[in-house]
Amino acid sequence: MATRTEIRLFDSAARAVRPFVPVHAGEARMYNCGPTVYDRQHIGNLYAYIVADVVRRTFEYFGYRVTQVMNITDVGHIVDDADAGEDKMALGARRTGKDPLRIATEVTQQFMADRHKLNILDPHVMPKATEHVPLMIELIQKLIDKGHAYLAADGVYFDVTTFPGYGTRLNAEPPEERMAGARVEVNENKRHPNDFALWRAAKPGDLQQWDSPWGKGNPGWHIECSAMSMKYLGDTFDIHSGGEDHLFPHHECEIAQSEAATGKPFVNYWLHVRFLRVDNEKMAKSKGGFFTLDDISEWGYDPLAFRLLALGTGYRKSLDFTRAAMDQAQRRLERWRRVVAEAYAATGGRVTEPEPDYGVRKGFNDALADDFNTPKALAAAEMALNLAGSDDAAIRERALWLLFDMDRVLGLSLRDAATKEDVLSSEERRLFDERERARRAKDFTRSDELRDELLERHGIRVMDTKDGARWERVAKGA
What we know:
By secondary structure, the chain is an alpha/beta fold. Helices cover 44% and strands 15% of the residues. The strands form five sheets. The chain has a four-stranded parallel β-sheet with strand order 4-3-9-10, sandwiched between helices.
């Protein structure tokens, strides 16, 4: 695809949809706030990474050379995003009795396994905070030298009064109003209540600490992302993404410290994903109850059904997670796989780039270019799926090409479904569909006859469920 396709995306800083203009022609450099690896990531966390994956795949689909960086936070993230309190890695260590780095390794491995089940591509660079502490110290020293940070009794703080507009780049209301009514711990070491920690002096019992010009301690959460993103993407890069909970304070702090250090714009486009909600509430570990990808699998859902559910909601809207919605997504995924597999079998595995493409490709491309509108992109894919069900072999070949091409962004493993999934022959499908019609007409005698024929002659066992008839291949007459 040509890079001249104009991609438009909603920029949280501009509070508007803007055309994408890259810092480097033909490139898209993006940074995604990665997980704090003290505990298993829940599906709300994973949803944000599905969105980031779609963004990356879209740019690649349109011919951009993408560099994607996602950090691993294995130190520095204080509970409730505060400046004082317990580090989340220490919390994990206290809960499990394991060393923080061992916890980080185990949780990171599980996180990556979950990503792979959801067909989320690996980032090109995945830096760990603990491996970049000297870089953070260097950045903090630069901020001190420029008069934007100061040493206090309990660490080093960024002086927000030296950065005009702090806290309002991504948020319309000033920090004072946003924090009104919140319980804020008074810290006499700060010059201003909104000053935030760049370096925290070590406390007795700290499990992770490093030497620095200001004594032993550990870095603040915000400085980590600035140091690592600029190392791998440059002082100014294209896209920074995260959940809507990162708007403040995390991303506002990143902007302030990065631009104060370099004197350059930090990020050109800010992309924030709305929360996944269950029973109209944000899913969060702090509430003590959350769902993991394993939970979804134990309920009988394919992880890619969750990806399909996510694609059906625009990232700027909250994703409502319910069992009913997952039922629908699972059925939709199974239908897609069945149609693709049957079309692939019918064409003998032949696919042909379509000319014409029946308007499908334009609809798909226009949807993606319009702020990654995946619901509309799925609608275009459904058009191709309908064509794949045609009796015309040539149309089926073209439809399969379109579906496989679109799956470069959708990430639903449709080619795997075509080549690996067991499918009904045309005769088996005819009998299966005839039985379905008989059952809906309440002709149970004929329905039973057809079910027996499928089992005895073809080894197809039919099972009636609340979601419709399912089948499995067994030994004939079993």
